Amino acid sequence: MIFAHIFFYVFAIILVASAVMVVTARNPVHSVLFLILCFFNAAGLFLIAGAEFLAFILLIVYVGAVAVLFLFVVMMLDIDFSELRAGVQRYAPIGGVIGAILFLELVLVLGGWKVSPLAAGLRLTPMGYGISNTDAIGRVLYTQYAFLFETASLVLMVAMIGAIVLTHRDRRRSKSQVIAQQNARNPADTLAMIDVAVGAGVKAADIRRPDPALERPGEVVVLPDEETHEPVLVAPEPRSH
Amino acid sequence: MQPLLSQYWPILIFGAIAGGIAVAMMLGALFAARQKPYAEKLSAYECGFEPFDDARRRFDVRFYLVCLLFIIFDLEVAFLFPWAVSLSHIGLFGFFSMLTFLAELTVGYVYAWRRGALDWE
Amino acid sequence: MNWIVALPEIVLALSGMAVLIAGVFAPRPGAFQLTSMLALGALLVTAGLVVIAPAGVGYGGLYVADAFSRFVQLLILAGAALAIILSLDFNRQEAELARFEFPVLILFAAVGMMIMVGATNFMTLYLGLELQSLALYVVAAFARDSLRSSEAGLKYFVLGSLASGLLLYGISLTYGFSGSMSFAQVARALLSGTPSVGLVIGMVFVISGLVFKVAAAPFHMWSPDVYEGAPTSVTALLGSAPKVAALALLLRVMMGPYGHLLSQWQLLIEIISIASLVVGALAPILQTSIKRLMAYSSIGHVGYALMGLAAGTQSGTTATLIYLATYLFMTLGSFGVIIAMRRQGRSVETISDLAGLGRNDAGLALAMTIFMLSMAGVPPLSGFFGKLYVFLAAVQSGLWTLAVIGVIASVVGAYYYLRIVKIMYFDAPVRAFDRRSPSLSFVVAASGIVTVFFIIVAGPVTAAAQAAALALLG
């Protein structure tokens, strides 16, 4: 029992201290690192409260994924954070007032701690002892609350669509290999055999440049002519031998 | 105090040892290593990078997209844990409610794939 | 597990996914057109299902289909469908907007709104609200290469998340002090004895969160910026269906679980309503952008709709529902006109651009006149009936101050609505707008007909709203 108490205070103190550091750290990357420390200590508190599922979800989702995303965002924003902080002094009084009001409300809530008589009965956990927290969540989440569970999946899907819609662009900077196109090419489309008389030179044989690689047979490609600087039509018919 | 908590002793000890080693290494470097900083040491070596510089660089937004997709699938996996634990109690209905959930996200996955969000270039 | 009560939502969600897959496999240039048409079909089918699906409580008390949810869901589906029709041609004229995800996101937003108004549990409420908000944040930022649209989306997202945070905090306090998430159980817990301070503070947080979503006065700051920055087809959506859904949700929460705390929240809603009326009456006078004007005007309309809620009676609920029905069509019609404001392929958005519309395009000017007069509350247009009912409800409940301020606000508001009419008919004409597209004319005409001939259907609509209010109050 005493150990639980000791660890509660250790975790709680580190949690509050690192939360303060998240807000006050000069370097935003340090803020994110302190946030991760916060998450770890909050997970410890959840464990002490007996909510091991929440504790590990906090570690897996928040530390494993969300904090990484935060780091990306902090690094992606190439802005001067000291400039952003300039307003802190100016807005400190009003922020302090709002914080004080919220704190006062919390005190009021605690002071007026009068729970509805029905509440105690309603709040009893549906599961008896000997069932782990994770199991207890699983037994209601997928049956009793299936409607909400499927709605949550819709929310995730909308998040996926949103992320792609807002950030994905079709771009082709490097040349990628399209195997289907390569296989569809046949020699008649691309290869022309020409007999060149000895000493006649390439001009006489009407060899100017190779035909461009075509996306599909029969396509007409416009190329600028080197000498006249006017576009010439290069017909894709293969010249016969 | 739940008996559950005693199962986490090894993790606590593990954490303490890991933290101890990390602190020991930092302090060890501070005390044992010779530290003679001078101007040449701190300047860039020939055409190399500045040794002390702001590490913040503009990342391509595509990293962000990958990260977001990762979070979404990470959450999906998080929902699988309680399901796996309680599978013997929730019956066929519970089994199929998870399959529906996975099917909905598979639709999103097919969309992401076809849209090319999973290709890098 | 009475799953059939949520059949319309299930069908709409499944068709949303089907449309998404159809869009991603369709050839790119025609995909937007295809998904828009499919989405319209899905909304139509869902509306049919809403009418015929059985009423009842489903999913162990998580969701209810009753006359109230049916009434509001039909309004939501109509709003979403008209917004998609408005976007058909507009999105193709603007760069980057004609992507096939647009109607898909609107479908999912509609699913979220439908779940919201059928919620009988705080968790259902929250998930529905987040589903619609998330989809709307994305469509607000849909023109991602436009700085204004991105800014609008970001503002909407950050402030909307703040509102969600307030709402969640309030829900958690409510849960902690009453012991349940279910509306019925919370109401029962409140029945016995005086409520604790914690519960009242929780309720105030819930009200703040929801009022934020409907953009009523002290929490309205985000709405003009978002309205102005978002693409106009998105603004038309934001101003119509989500407002109706969020106000209906507010009705359900205040009349349901918090119904026994009427004496605690009545004054609060009254103050919010008065503040919205004042902002909605005075702020538009200074605007030059028609989209900002519409934003402030919609804040005023929310003030009127909240009057019915402040009355706290069945007739007040009926009045709010009728007001929402009239508001939806007036707003969509006006946005149809605003979308028609294009010169040489570019949208123009200032009020003075309307000058001379009476001579250049008599039909459009007539429609805009109808919407403006209706918003000002001129009989026999639909807006008059909405105002009449909320004033009556407020007076019946003895809220004389509120009713008097409402009348004064509508007189002041008439000034800027009439100013637009004056600009259209009497100011020196500027160049005509581009030829308007048929989809747009359809929406404007349909909304205009509803607004003008509301008097004919006023009886059945009132009866339906009364049935809805009865279902809500039991």
Helix count of chain B equals: 4
Average pLDDT score of chain C: 91
Count of DSSP helices of chain C?
A: 20
Rg estimate of chain B, integer Å? 25 Å
Task: Determine the oligomeric state from the structure.
Answer: heterotrimer
Low-confidence spans of chain B: pLDDT under 50, at least 5 residues? none
Number of separate strands of chain C:
4
Helix content of chain C: over 70%
Give the strand order, joined by hyphens, for the main sheet of chain C. Answer: 1-2
Order of helices and strands of chain C: HHEEHHHHHHHHHHHHEEHHHHHH
- Count the E strands of chain B: 0
| Biggest pleated sheet of chain B | none
Task: Please indicate the count of domains of chain C.
Answer: 1
Largest sheet of chain C: 2 strands, antiparallel
What class do helices, strands and sheet pairing of chain B give?
mainly alpha
Return Rg of chain C in Å: 21 Å
**Whole-number average pLDDT of chain B?**
84
Helix content of chain B: over 70%
Q: Helix- and strand-based class of chain C?
A: mainly alpha
Task: Fill in the CATH topology of chain B.
Answer: Methane Monooxygenase Hydroxylase, Chain G, domain 1
Explain what the structure shows.
The complex is a heterotrimer of chains A (241), B (121) and C (474). With 241 residues, chain A is mainly alpha-helical. Among the domains of chain A are: 79 residues, Up-down Bundle (Four Helix Bundle (Hemerythrin (Met), subunit A)), CATH 1.20.120.1200; 31 residues, no CATH class. Chain A has eleven helices and two strands. Chain A is elongated and about 105 Å long. The model of chain B has no long low-confidence stretch (mean pLDDT 84). With 121 residues, chain B is an all-alpha fold. Chain B has a single domain, classed as Methane Monooxygenase Hydroxylase, Chain G, domain 1 (Up-down Bundle). Chain B starts with a helix and ends in a 6-residue tail after the last helix. Chain C is mostly helical. Helix content of chain C is 77%, strand content 2%. Chains in contact: A-B, A-C, B-C.
